[in-house]
Design a protein that fits this description.
elongated; 22 strands; about 725 residues; alpha+beta; 9-stranded mixed sheet
Length: about 725
């Protein structure tokens, strides 16, 4: 059995003395924001400090030293600090052993074998009748539990150590080929995106299928149960949180917009990732060595997610064992998760009052591999040391700065929602900016709602970076201290040009859109059509746009009605639909050469001559109604219609200037109800376009001195 490290629990060292030792002997800089139980923190360091367990994964012995975990619910402070010196030493040894694809695959093979062993063991515990077992059998299971969970812990730092080498070398190679920072950032994204997927991706597919069945009226009771059996543990992280329930899954599935479209996109994702990888290799003329480095990076990106999945599934499914131990020691529910390994093994259980103090706040520190546990007021000096010396929070600067992981827009304002753990996920509303120490798979329901992400930690290969690129949402990572400098409810501004986050002034939720093609062409990414897509940079060129992708800022392409319907669609249960944008109208007019003909006739027109006005109007509308709709426009309209899955739709008009103050264009363009079938729909679209040139519409524009050439047109269809 892996033995727990001896931990001083009496506070003999004293908090001030411990701070001095940490300052002198440790180089604690790497910070991870997460809420963990005391038992988990003990298991974590026991695994990190065991040379044999590192050898099991890496093929050579290594002992990780120095560690600090501070969990203080009174100050909302939940952080783990690793030793930078140990990380660099391990990275150096890994570089000597091999950084290529062969080494990556060997590490992953051993990691997966260790993870499979731990998860299989946990499943056997989950299904066992623990109450029927003797005390000796329970302690035997606990010894096995410690051994299997500790064996997984070295993987948590191995991936970070490898990334220090692989990511740095890959960037160095790219810089030899281009000095353009945007090109390097974009290339890193495309070269390191994994083309195989982990449990969170599989869970996303499963929840989308459930949502799609719900929309179709199919029974989902069995699929929800299967979903929980496979993925319910994702709500339980680092021995903390709650397993998902059927109600959680049903609620989340009901909130998903367009699950069919998302499934269709994801079905093409793997091929897209491979294509972008190959295109980047060709564009930058990467040699075989760099290609191998990139492929190794992809493998370690996959491992980064796998390692936490394996640990959390094993810990989650084995939770009944730790609960049963607590029951046998006659402890209140949850208390056994705040015992140390040695306390459980020896049976020397502290009083319930002492455990309750640990649950409120504790600090577990290791100087070398000598452990110290502090609780209550003794945690204050340790937390202050972490805040000032390790996190640099003294002085509370007005802004933070990090690395831009995804830049679909130039900047965005919104309301900050600080999510320190899974218990805060439900606080995130549609359009908020999620601010977290780090993101995890059980944050995905909140990330689906959020308009952007900001994290304390992470690199281009972290979970937040990967998810932001899949959802195509703005993301700034590695700020170090955003969760401490920003308060829940603050209006904040994300500048995606330089990665700064500042307190915003004025009305929040104002979105500044800039064409990605124009300014950030190299960093543009494929967009996953998620439920919350307020941030889009490609809409300016789109022919047809579903309501869920429109917001009030899109009047210029969707008209007043279309933009407002999109805004309402994200908040209210209105029927689905899509907007045929101004781009379609312009394309139709230009493709058929109608612009010259129409405006030549209007240029000669005297709008006060009723007979001439009616005649000109009739001629123009006849030209439009007889002109063919371009193939690309026709195809997208029909596809949008099929996705509505309704026999009858309404086709309604929305012109450029109809929502301007002091003018009333309402009712001047046509509306067609109860339209059924592709041919009837396309005809209704054409007739709506033609209604831009009715006698009353032409006259009103002339009377109010609106140029006919600048009167563009959109229309929308809905069930």
């Amino acid at each position: 059995m892996v033995k727990g490290i001896g931990i001083e629990t009496k506070g003999k060292a004293g908090p001030k003395g411990l701070v001095l030792r940490l300052s002198a002997d440790a180089n604690l800089r790497t910070v991870v924001g997460r809420r963990v139980s005391l038992l988990f923190a003990n298991l974590h360091m026991s695994g990190l400090s065991n040379p044999e367990l590192h050898k099991k994964i890496l093929g050579f012995e290594f002992q990780y030293r120095n560690y600090l975990c501070v969990q203080d619910s009174t100050k909302d402070f939940y952080y783990v600090f690793y030793d930078t010196t140990s990380a660099k030493e391990e990275a150096k040894l890994i570089a000597q052993k091999g950084r290529g694809l062969k080494f990556a695959k060997s590490v992953i093979e051993r990691s997966v074998a260790t993870g499979t062993e731990a998860v299989d063991f946990a499943k056997s515990i989950e299904n066992a009748d623990l109450r029927a077992k003797s005390d000796r059998e329970i302690m035997g299971l606990f010894e096995d539990y410690v051994e299997r969970i500790c064996a997984l812990m070295p993987i948590t730092v191995i991936t970070a150590a490898v990334e220090l080498t692989v990511e740095e070398e890959l960037k160095k190679g790219l810089m030899e080929r281009t000095k353009d920072g945007h090109k390097i950032s974009s290339a890193m994204v495309r070269l390191t995106a994994p083309d195989r997927y982990n449990v969170p991706y599989e869970e996303q597919i499963s929840i989308l299928k459930i949502a799609n069945d719900m929309k179709s009226g199919k029974s989902t009771a069995d699929s929800v149960k299967r979903h929980l059996e496979r993925y319910g543990w994702l709500g339980y992280r680092f021995d903390f949180g709650q397993f998902w329930t059927e109600q959680d899954i049903v609620k989340r599935a009901k909130e998903i917009r367009g699950p069919g479209e998302q499934l269709e996109f994801l079905s093409k994702k793997e091929a897209l990732v491979k294509k972008e990888f190959n295109d980047t290799v060709k564009q930058l003329k990467l040699d075989a060595e760099l290609v191998e480095m990139a492929n190794a990076a992809k493998e370690f990106v996959w491992l980064r997610t796998y390692r936490t999945d394996a640990i959390n599934e094993a810990v989650g499914r084995a939770k009944p064992l730790i609960d049963e131990i607590g029951r046998r020691y006659k402890l209140p529910e949850g208390y056994s998760h705040y015992l140390t390994i040695d306390e459980i093994s020896s049976g020397r259980i502290p009083k319930a009052a002492e455990i309750a103090k640990r649950m409120k706040c504790y600090s577990l520190a290791f100087v070398g591999i000598e452990g110290f546990l502090l609780t209550g007021v003794n945690v204050d000096p340790i937390r202050e040391f972490a805040e000032t010396d390790l996190m640099g929070l003294a002085g509370k600067p007005a802004r933070v700065k990090g690395m831009v992981a995804n830049r679909p827009v130039e900047s965005i304002e919104g309301i900050a929602r600080v999510v320190n753990s899974v218990t805060d996920v439900d606080n995130v509303r549609v359009g908020d900016i999620l601010v977290a120490p780090m993101t995890e798979p059980n944050f995905v329901p909140a990330m689906e709602k959020a308009a952007a992400f900001v994290t304390d930690e992470g690199g281009l290969l972290c979970h937040a970076a990967i998810i932001s690129r899949e959802m195509n949402k703005p993301c700034i990572i590695g700020t170090g201290n955003a969760t401490k400098l920003l308060k829940d409810g603050d209006a904040i501004l994300l500048d995606l040009r330089d990665g700064t986050v500042t307190k915003a002034s004025g009305k929040p939720l104002r979105i500044k859109l800039e064409s990605a093609e124009k300014k950030y062409k190299e960093s543009a990414t494929e967009s996953l059509p998620t439920r919350q897509e307020a941030i889009q940079t490609d809409l300016d060129t789109m022919l047809v746009v579903p309501f869920e992708r429109l917001r009030k800022e899109h009047i210029h392409i969707a008209g007043g009605k279309g933009a407002n319907l999109g805004e309402m669609f994200s908040r209210f249960p209105i029927p689905r639909g899509f907007c045929v944008t101004v781009n379609s109208y312009k394309h139709f007019i230009k493709e058929n050469g109608l612009d010259t003909k129409i405006f030549k006739m209007l240029g000669k027109l005297n709008p006060k001559d009723n007979k001439s006005l009616d005649s000109t109007s009739e001629q123009i509308r006849k030209l439009i109604n007889s002109a063919p709709i371009p193939d690309d426009v026709r195809k997208q309209i029909v596809e949008g219609y099929k996705k509505l899955k309704g026999s009858y739709v309404a086709v309604r008009s929305s012109a450029t200037a109809e929502d301007l103050p002091n003018f009333s264009f309402a009712g001047q363009q046509d509306t067609y109800l109860n339209i059924k079938g592709d041919a009837a729909l396309l005809d209704a679209v054409r007739r709506c376009w033609a209604s831009l040139f009715t006698s009353r519409a032409i006259y009103y524009r002339a009377l109010n001195k609106f140029e006919h050439e600048k009167s563009t047109y959109r229309l929308w269809c809905r069930t």
